Amino acid sequence: MDSKDSSNIKKEVEKLNIIKSENKFIKIKSDFFIQKLFDNMQKKVSLEIVKININIQKRLNININNYKEYFEKFTPIELEIIPAQDEYGAFIKIKEEDKNYFHIYFNNNKKEIHKTKLNKEDNVSKINIIIDYQIKSFFNLFSYCKCIESINFKKFHRNDITNMSGMFRGCVLLKELNLSNFNTNNVTNMDSMFFGCSSLKELNLSNFNTNNVTNMSCMFGGCTSLKEINLSSFNTNKVTNMDDIFSGCSSELKFKIQSQYLNFLKN
């Protein structure tokens, strides 16, 4: 990149007034801003961009032709939670050290809410959550959050989450779960992921990539109301633990599967 290109980029950044620049490098936190920057450039040339990962402080060079593929890992995850009106208490479990990476809004309010439990006086009908890219694990994220009726993952392009163990465990009032945008490409642990979701009647996991999963123990255990489950994309070649995967499920449960992968259903 020559100095003229670098100067033009810096001017565009300053005009947008959204990101800071240092020398010829630009610190960018969103693929949206990168695209906007590219759209404002006259020359479509290779561009050196710096992405700072807070955890590892590693500088990475992105080419204009592959930035989209790379930055999918760093886009925030967006989800919407509908709480049950007759139950109150925790609606999400966040570790103290991770609180800065969860941005929570009640009833589409623009003001960020710094709490993880509901009280009756809150009168909340909808909770919107944005999860920053720093989070690498969803272990017990909604575990035993008994006030949740519906969860819709609106945006989930990242592929760096590896642990979903106990993610929805004990969500006894959960009736609707939209995981159509869910990314499980590098998940290795799904132990007890839906354990005890006793109000779920249908579960569509047709987009799940389980090529790297090794643990599915108790994954659907205690889903007593489950009538239909779509596992048509499941690959269990690497799974070593399937103990009690459907323990406590109804004998009327109907499966949509790829039988060549799901050997445990043949027994």
Q: What features would you describe in this structure?
A:
Helices cover 10% and strands 18% of the residues. It has helices at residues 3-16, 31-39, 67-71; strands spanning 21-22, 25-26, 77-83, 89-90, 102-106, 117-118, 127-131, 148-155, 176-178, 202-204, 228-231, 254-257. The chain folds into two domains: 3-72, no CATH class; 76-267. Strand 1 (21-22) and strand 2 form a beta hairpin. The N and C termini lie far apart (62 Å). The chain contains three helices and twelve strands. The radius of gyration is 21 Å and the shape is globular. With 267 residues, it is of the alpha/beta class. The relative contact order is 0.09.
Architecture blueprint of SSEs:
Elements (H helix, E strand, L loop, with lengths): L2 H14 L4 E2 L2 E2 L4 H9 L27 H5 L5 E7 L5 E2 L11 E5 L10 E2 L8 E5 L16 E8 L20 E3 L23 E3 L23 E4 L22 E4 L10
How many domain modules? Answer: 2
SSE ordering: HEEHHEEEEEEEEEE
**Average pLDDT for all residues:** 78
Radius of gyration: 21 Å
Biggest β-sheet, characterized?
5 strands, mixed
Strand order of the largest sheet: 5-7-3-8-9
Look at the helices and sheets and give the structural class. Answer: alpha/beta
Question: pLDDT below 50 for ≥5 consecutive residues: which ranges?
Answer: 15-34, 40-60, 260-267
Helix content: 10-25%
Figure out the total of helices: 3
Number of strands: 12
Beta content comes to: 15-25%
Shape: globular
What's the oligomerization state?
Answer: single chain
Distance between the termini: 62 Å
